[in-house]
């Protein structure tokens, strides 16, 4: 059984590892569509920290991942699923219901997100700590 999933996977974290592991458990071949830098700018309003080549390299290095490709458009999901002959589409439940239209060509499974972690929250923590450090440095000088 081939499983396909999609995402940005910027600054990979525990939530990413868990969803990829759980996706792999549903079949025996896991394909990951890593969204392009341009698609992210469109989708999330910012460029990822890691480039698309770096993100594809990182995700391809995960034990359970068998194949990665660049997702260049949200409009092409059906083509990607058909081209890669996926039997199951896995998405995090932040997307619940949004991909039911593909249930005519594959099984659609939404898996629960890992609580309390996202790339956005990690960026916020790093930014806050950075500013705290700057404040400390300016107080010392
Ligand atoms: N994911 C998850 N648990 C999390 C974060 C993400 O299961 N805590 C899943 C998403 O549901 C998606 C995949 O990981 O299926 C890729 O998500 P992505 O949007 O790249 O990660 P986020 O951390 O949510 O990124 P951002 O904060 O930039 O939206």
Main pleated-sheet profile: 5 strands, parallel
| Morphology call | elongated
Q: What share of residues is helical?
A: 40-55%
How many helix segments?
Answer: 5
Structural class: alpha/beta
Strand content: 15-25%
Strand order within the widest beta sheet: 3-2-1-4-5
Predict the CATH topology: Rossmann fold
Order of helices and strands: EHEHHEHEEH
CATH homologous superfamily designation? HUPs
Q: Mean pLDDT, as a whole number? A: 94
* Tally of distinct domains: 1
Overview of the structural elements:
This protein is an alpha/beta fold. The chain has a single domain (2-113), classed as HUPs (Rossmann fold), CATH 3.40.50.620. It contains 5 helices and 5 strands. The protein has helices spanning 14-25, 37-44, 52-60, 77-83, 119-140; strands at residues 2-7, 29-35, 67-71, 88-92, 107-111. The longest helix is centred in the last third of the chain and has 22 residues, at 119-140. The radius of gyration is 17 Å and the shape is elongated. The chain starts with a strand and ends with a helix. The structure holds cytidine-5'-triphosphate. Cytidine-5'-triphosphate binds at residues 7-10, 15-16, 19, 44, 91-92, 94, 113-114, 117-120. Cytidine-5'-triphosphate is lined by residues 7-10, 15-16, 19, 44, 91-92, 94, 113-114, 117-120.
Would you spell out the secondary-structure blueprint of this structure?
Blueprint: E1 2-7, H1 14-25, E2 29-35, H2 37-44, H3 52-60, E3 67-71, H4 77-83, E4 88-92, E5 107-111, H5 119-140
Cytidine-5'-triphosphate binds at residues 7-10, 15-16, 19, 44, 91-92, 94, 113-114, 117-120.
